[in-house]
Amino acid sequence: MKLKINGIEHELDIDTRTSLLDACRDHLGFTGSKKGCDHGQCGACTMLVNGRRINSCLTLAVMHEGDEITTIEGIGQPDKLHPMQEAFLHHDGFQCGYCTPGQIVSAVGMLGEVKDNWPSHASDNVTGDANLSSDEIRERMSGNICRCSAYPNIVDAIESASAKMKETA
Questions:
Q1: Of 12, 95, 108, 155, which is most buried with the most CB atoms under 10 A?
Q2: Cα–Cα distance between 143 and 46 in angstroms, integer?
Q3: CA-to-CA distance for 78 and 66, rounded, in angstroms?
Q4: SS (H, E, C) 97-166
Q5: Domain named 2Fe-2S ferredoxin-type: which ranges (predicted)?
Q6: Phi, psi of 55, deg, nearest 5
Q7: What gap in Å lies between CA 16 and CA 65, rounded to an integer?
Q8: How far apart are CA 124 and CA 18, in angstroms?
Q9: From residue 152, how far is each of 95, 155, 162 by CA, in Å?
């Protein structure tokens, strides 16, 4: 099978029962996405598939042949960080760092959802134009758990990156 990850096509010969997370980590060396709970409850394994956030531990790799898959390694580069990565550094949006790749990928995906006017349970206006308040960010990021409880800094980082990304758009 072939998977297109971070813009590069990879050919794999793996068991059809292999999760997307395990294919990326164990067979392709993309170890940024973490295996936290392996039950889709923590968000440490969050990847973008065709721009949409998914828990990669819950989906089989074979289901994503032909899809555009983005891992944390595809979000930015060491010499040119994504604005979300810069914001996490600036606002100390991490402590132990285990959840950070999933948090960043999820935040990037979440901002795409906001841009596309996807409502959330916290949205005042479900027909679009989401106000990206702290409550809205917390609701939209609720699938990503930080065991160190860096949530206030994560929210600050997302608010900052969102503003910066709007300025450069």
A1: 108
A2: 9
A3: 27
A4: CCCHHHHHHHHHHHHHHHHCCCCCCCCCCCCCCCCCCHHHHHHHCCCCCCCCCCHHHHHHHHHHHHHHHH
A5: 1-75
A6: -85, 105
A7: 12
A8: 40
A9: 12, 5, 15
**What are the pLDDT digits (tens) for 15-62?**
999 999 999 999 999 999 999 999 999 999 999 999 999 999 999 999
Q: Rounded to an integer, what distance in angstroms lies between the CA atom of residue 33 and that of residue 73?
A: 9
How far is it, in rounded angstroms, from Cα 27 to Cα 86? 29
- Give kind and range of the element (H or E) at residue 85: helix 83-90
- Angle of helix 100-115 relative to helix 151-168, nearest 10 degrees? 50
Bridge-partner residues for 48, per DSSP? Answer: 53, 70
Domains and CATH numbers, the chain: 2-74 (3.10.20.30), 83-168 (1.10.150.120)
**All residues at 6 or more sequence positions from 169 whose CB lies less than 8 Å from its CB, including other chains:** none
- DSSP label at residue 61: G
Instruction: Tell me the one-letter amino acid at 146.
Output: C
